[in-house]
Amino acid sequence: MTSERWSTHAVDLGTVTVTKRFGPQDGDRHAREWRALTLLAEHAPGLAPEPLHGGTDDGRPTVVMSRLPGAPLRGVRMGARETAALATTLTELHTCLPAARLAEVPARPGRPAGIAARIRTWQAAGLPRAQAPEVSAALRGGLRWLDGSDVARPSAGAVPAVFGPGDGNLANYLWDGARVRVVDFEESGRSDRAFEIAEVTEHVSAWLGGSLDVPGLLHHLDLTPAETARLTECRRLLALVWLFMLALDAPDRPRNPPGTAARQARRLLDLLG
Predict the structure, then answer these.
(1) pTM for the full model?
(2) What is the domain count for the chain?
(3) Residue 267 is part of a domain; what is its CATH number?
(4) Which segments does the entry list as coiled coil (predicted)?
(5) pLDDT in tens, 190-245
C-alpha cells in the first residue's frame, strides 16, 4: 500500500533496463520483486518487466529488469480507454498464476489485519490534532465502523486467493496508448482480489492530481457477490488508513497540497454512507 513512502532502495533508469538496489531496511523486498517478475514472465509475458539479473552490488541486493514503454497513469484524468485497459490488466495480473503456483507464493505484507493494527496504534496515541472538523468527524466515524467490521478476519474460503502486486499507486501502471503494464512488486504476494482492487481505487494517486473513474473500473471487473461485499469493506479500511496518514502529515513539512486531508475525509464519509 505505502511502500513508496518507506522503501530505501535506489532506482537507476537506463535506456533499456532498470536497476533497483535495495537497502538494509528493505527486508525481503528484493526477493518479492524477483519472484513476481519471474512468475509473470512465465505466466503473463509482457505484462511486467522481464527479469534480467538478480544479485548484489556492494553488498546490496540488486534486481535488473527490462524497461517498459508507456507513461504512468498517476496524475492522468483517465478516459474510457485507459479505464478499460486498466481493468483488463488487473484481471490478468490477479488471475494469471495457476492455483498450484499461487499456493507457493507467500502472503503479501500489508494485509487488512496489519492495517487495522496500525490504525489501532495510532488511535491509542490519540487522534491527530488541529484538523478540520470534517477530518475529525471522519476519523471518529471510521473508527466506529472498524469496531464492528470483520474486514481483518474474513471467513476462510469466502473469496479466492489471487496474486497481488501489493501497491495501488497509479504511478506503477504504465499506459502506452494501447495497453497498461505494471511495475514495482516489492510488496507482492498472495492476496485476495477485493483487497487488491481497493488498493487501487483508494490510493491517493487515484484522485489527487488526476481522476480514476472508479464506477467505470468496477463495471469491467467480474466480481463474485462475496468479492463485491468485501470490496466495500476493504475500500473503507484503506480510506481510513489513508486519512490517518494524511492527517498525520507534518504541518511544517507537508507532502501534499493544502486541503488534501479534508478531501480524503469526504471520500471516507461517502464510503461509510
Answers:
(1) 0.92
(2) 2
(3) 3.90.1200.10
(4) none
(5) 999 999 999 999 999 999 988 999 999 999 999 999 999 999 999 999 999 999 99
